[in-house]
């Protein structure tokens, strides 16, 4: 910083813009050098910041995957309409055709009593069904079933289907999805609160680190102030120092979360496959990861700027 100050103050041939650019480049490289010359202190600072950033980011990632899973479930939501036993197969097929023509219905699947019996037998319950009607056709005790996939509001469609004269029972699973949406909204609010609190913690960590660096260079800063250096000129190297800390912390946080996602992806895929689902855990895409790293660098810049600005206001020479 001293070398750059001499060049900026004593080279009248340089334009103001050129001096400004030169000092930015010098501060950019010199601050990186100071970070690398203190590896242990840098690792501690970056590690604490990375953990503080990884916690809300991890919660946000989990909520994103749960919301994605919820969206997949909602896309495949179905309403089961059990028809009255008196409704024969011909009328059931005609009713299915009528429902397919409705604008609020995307798909209708007719499951006959014989098909339902085959499914029960495949699940090991065929004997139990046959026991309900000994000596008779076991399929005769089962009703026809319409599986309706809604195109619009599920609750309204279920209420409408309940009014059908042929309908005996209408089942749909809207309640648990509404509760899941409520938990997702609550989790999103928790993630925002954690992000604010832990972001403040990261801000304090980088601010304290920069403060220690300022204290070790206070004599140099005092000389520059007496030589007429502006606050922006003095502050600039510390701003880049904070940005380097934030950049490294953001990259480390993304790395930690990516490693955790890789470790959890295979067990979660096996668990989802056991339920017949192809759901897979998704990590950060490249634009999101870049935005997180850039945001962490900005956080470090702001923290360094606040601390440096406070110090300069306290030590600014008074005019006589």
UniProtKB/TrEMBL annotation:
The keyword Oxidoreductase does not apply. It holds the Pfam family FtsX. Part of the ABC transporter FtsEX involved in cellular division. Coiled coil: none annotated. InterPro entries: ABC3_permease_C, FtsX, FtsX_ECD, FtsX_proteobact-type. Belongs to the ABC-4 integral membrane protein family. FtsX subfamily. GO terms for cellular component: cell division site; plasma membrane. GO terms for biological process: cell division. It comes from Cognatiluteimonas weifangensis. This is Cell division protein FtsX. The chain crosses the membrane at residues 40-63, 190-210, 243-266, 286-307. It is found in: Cell inner membrane.
């Amino acid at each position: 910083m001293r070398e750059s100050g001499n060049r900026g103050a004593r080279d009248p041939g340089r334009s103001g813009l050129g001096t400004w650019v030169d000092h930015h480049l010098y501060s950019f490289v010199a601050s990186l050098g100071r970070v690398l010359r203190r590896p242990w202190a840098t690792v501690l600072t970056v590690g604490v910041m990375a953990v503080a950033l990884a916690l809300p980011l991890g919660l946000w990632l989990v909520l994103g995957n749960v919301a994605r899973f919820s969206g997949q479930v909602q896309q495949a939501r179905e309403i089961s309409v059990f028809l009255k036993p008196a409704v024969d197969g011909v009328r059931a097929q005609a009713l299915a055709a009528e429902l397919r023509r409705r604008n609020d219905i995307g798909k209708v699947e007719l499951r006959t009593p014989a098909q339902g019996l085959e499914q029960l037998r495949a699940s090991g319950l065929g004997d139990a069904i046959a026991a309900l009607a000994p000596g008779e056709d076991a399929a005769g005790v089962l009703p026809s079933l319409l599986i309706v996939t809604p195109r619009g509001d599920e609750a309204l469609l279920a209420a409408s289907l309940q009014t059908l004269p042929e309908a005996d029972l209408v089942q749909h699973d809207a309640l648990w999805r509404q509760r899941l949406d409520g938990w997702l909204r609550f989790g999103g609010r928790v993630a925002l609160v954690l992000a604010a609190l832990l972001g403040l913690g990261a801000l304090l960590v980088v601010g304290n680190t920069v403060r220690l660096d300022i204290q070790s260079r206070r004599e140099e800063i005092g000389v520059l102030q007496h030589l007429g250096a502006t606050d922006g000129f003095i502050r600039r190297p510390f701003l880049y120092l904070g940005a380097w800390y934030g950049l490294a912390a953001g990259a480390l946080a993304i790395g930690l979360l990516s490693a955790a996602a890789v470790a959890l992806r295979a067990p979660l895929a096996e668990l989802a496959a056991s339920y017949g689902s192809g759901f897979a855990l998704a990590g950060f895409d490249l634009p999101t990861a870049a935005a997180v790293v850039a945001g962490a660098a900005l956080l470090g810049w702001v923290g360094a700027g606040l601390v440096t600005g406070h110090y300069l206001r306290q030590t600014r020479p008074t005019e006589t």
